[in-house]
Amino acid sequence: MKIILPLFAAILSFCVISCRHTTPAPPAAVAETQAQKPDLVTTVANIDHDRILRLADEALKLPPQTITDFIATNSAGGLHDFFSQGDYYWPNDTNETSLPYVGHDGMTNTNNFELHRLAMRKMKDAVAALAAAYALTGDDKYVPKANELLRVFFLDDATKMNPNLDYAQAVLGKQTGSSFGVIDTLHLAELPVAIRFLEKSSAFDATVDEGMKKWFRDYSEWMLTATNGVKEMNALNNHSIAYFVQLASFTKFTGNDQDLELCRQRFKEVLFPNQMTNNGSFPRELARTKPYGYSIFQADNVSILCGLLSTPADDVWKFQLPDGRTPRMAVDFIYPYLLDKEKWLADGHKPDVLHWDHWPVRQVCLLFAYREFGDEKYFDLWKKMEPDPSDLEIRRNLAVTQPLLWIADPGNVPLLRKP
Which residues of the chain are under the pLDDT cut of 50? Predict the structure, then answer.
């Protein structure tokens, strides 16, 4: 027996080394990480308890938000079409018309129209808070308000938003909408995650549920077929990662396994190998005028996408390229700079031209990496960070505002049971 055990260990070690480039994670490894989740859910539920209930109470008082409340006079679309302007585009000072607008990377023009964005984010944040409060307590009182907010924004004929972004991030005098405008709906990726909890309540309106599934089916179809959607899918930088965070969330919600598999394939074969280098950084983001914020943004969205795409048979977190690159490296690259921002400068990176002082905040990549790998350093840092930044530009870069919804099981509502 003493001879057999070392022999078995040697064989096992050889198999692990020789199989290191295989794509799927062993089911046993997935089961091992899954075993951490119930305790983590309870811990996060307790950490966020007061915050969630405070935000949910605010949401209960919120009038329904809709894009039709704000007329976009520069839009080439109609009342029900979402409109925004390219953030980094400014009036042209070489002529009297100020057209066409010209780009200055990283320099946000706060005079551009963004009221549709703000209405969308306010609605999404409120629904997510209501769903999180219901998840915590099992109290149906939070659900009717979520029904109302969703119905008014997406479904009612008089106030609904059309399921397209044809007119997002327009550049005045140049284009009525652009492909990079698709990133404006990144925040909607959290809605399907919230709705899966609301569905557990008898107070959740079945017509709203089905209406939302139809809206996301229609919007996913637009993303996959419209010129701007296809261009964004093929973007070479953070925009394509953000695109697939959305598409993965929407198709998972609507049960479209074929398009969900497309997301999985594109991440493994195109996005990940072509954007992240062998130290976990994203060179195209480092070349921007806001390299710190964009690097954080990428790490967050890669972690969100890994969670959305993983299955018990295929843990995407453990996907490995032949040269050894794994998604975890994106978190490990940014971690020391989240811990100590001054190290970013000491290592030769440039500070962001705007909003440098307001990063970092409570980055979800830390929580999701801890959930997956169990390294306490991620969670220790996550707990210390600001969950609700006041800077609107920082908030615009946070797809996840209620992380509890992303790690918990709707079947366990209420997540915090009374003694």
Answer: 1-37
Residues 298-347: pLDDT tens digits? 999 999 999 999 999 999 999 999 999 999 999 999 999 999 999 999 99
Per residue in 26-64, pLDDT (tens digit) is: 343 344 444 444 599 999 999 999 999 999 999 999 999
CA end-to-end distance (rounded Å), the chain: 49
| 3-class secondary structure, 262 | helix
Q: What phi and psi, each to the nearest 5 degrees, are found at residue 94?
A: -90, -5
Which of these CATH numbers, 3.30.70.20, 1.50.10.100, 3.30.230.10, 1.10.10.10, describes 26-412? Answer: 1.50.10.100
Residue of 200, 202, 138 whose CA lies nearest to 416? 138
Structural contact between residues 402 and 129, judged by C-beta atoms closer than 8 angstroms: yes
> In the structure encoding, which two tokens stand for residue 52, read together?
């969630």
Helices (H), 111-205: 115-137, 143-150, 190-198
**Token pair belonging to 192:** 């399907």
C-alpha to C-alpha distance for 52 and 297, rounded to whole angstroms = 23
In the chain, domain spans: 26-412
**Which of 130, 152, 151 has the alpha carbon at shortest distance from 142?**
130
- HSE toward the beta carbon, residue 373, CA cutoff 13 A: 22
Question: Which amino acid type is present at position 298?
Answer: Q
Q: Is the dihedral of CA 405, 407, 413, 415 positive or negative?
A: negative
Alpha-carbon separation of residue 303 from 11, 43, 55, 330 (angstroms): 33, 20, 25, 9
Determine the Cα–Cα distance for residues 189 and 209; give it in Å rounded to an integer: 16
Say which residue the tokens 């979800």 belong to.
Answer: 364
